[in-house]
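A quick aside before the break. I want you to see a complete sequence-to-structure record at least once, exactly as it would be stored in a machine-readable document. Don't worry about memorizing anything.
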Amino acid sequence: MHGESLQHSLAVLLFQGDGSFWMPPKGSTTAAEVDWLFYFIFWVSMFFFTLIVTLMVVFLVRYRRRPGREEADELPHHNLALELVWSIIPLGLVVVIFWVGFQAYLNMSTAPPNAYEIRVTGMKWQWLFTYPNGWADSELHAPKGVPIKLTMTSEDVIHSLYIPDFRLKKDVVPGRYTSAWFQADEVGEHNLFCAEYCGKEHSSMLSRVIIQEPEDYLAWLENAAAFYDELPPVEAGAEMLKKYGCVQCHHVDSTASTGPPLNDLFGREEQLAGSQTITVDENYVRQSILEPDAEIVRGYQNVMPTFQGKIKDKEIDWIIAYLKDISSHYEQPELLLGTPEAEAGEAAEATEPAVEAGVDEVPPETSADGGEGVGDE
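That is the input. The structure line, written in tokens, reads:
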């Protein structure tokens, strides 16, 4: 999954579409300001680089030491006109760069008063986006043509939300809130990265920004939560592990990572850090999600963030159902009592003795006058 996302991201960076060699395509209303300033600095730098290198080569050739050329009696030490030129022109360029950059910074830092707010939580190694109706998702959905304010915080270390197409980058810091905003006027998908090294799975902290028509966004938001309700609990549980980033630290192929593997976990005895032994059951799974520092498995560090207030009870139930399904230490008993199959089986068993004894139910003979025929008297 992460490999496919990384390949997609590299493809977007290498083949920019309507972008340039230096910059990706512009996906937000503020991207043009950033690009203008970038190219202004770029071409000013190219001009002075070319000028300085050209003059340097010319001076090296023309004023090189040669036989018959004597050193000048007096070297110039002061030229007012030249000094004014190389002071005023750079000063003017720096003032222009500062003013345009400062204006762009203010525009990108101050969200419009009518901005639509989405909460962002960064954690090792996953993004979680919480929408106004309480729904949380690992991908950022937003309506087209609407200013979006992102209110962000971190559960563990410093992350940095980076959307190249929007020219948007903002640190996400634990213990405080930071904010950023954007407005995308075209429907499409954009890559989202973490631009601050946050641990060994930093490069896997990828997501997408999905810009939709306003009516499509509202329909998605209304149906998003109901989608998981329609899945079988086991499948919904597998989706929850992806949604909340559990698979970043807990693998399901018996491979140890930042956290213990999840396959064959339910029903197994685990050694805790305090030399205690516990059997993994429903209560332990629930406690580990809501209070991950309560009981730590021996050999692992206490680095898991809490999901208290983020995950719903039914989502925990789905995760428990999935853990049971992938564990060889738990077997769901088959119970047939009360089912149509069981009732049919009981009826068949009840008729077997009569058939084996050769007893057939024969309707009584009826005489011509309507009486029962019991023989001639």
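Two observations worth writing down. Residues 81 and 87 are 10 Å apart (CA to CA). Confidence is low (pLDDT under 50) at residues 1-17, 353-377. We'll return to this after the break.
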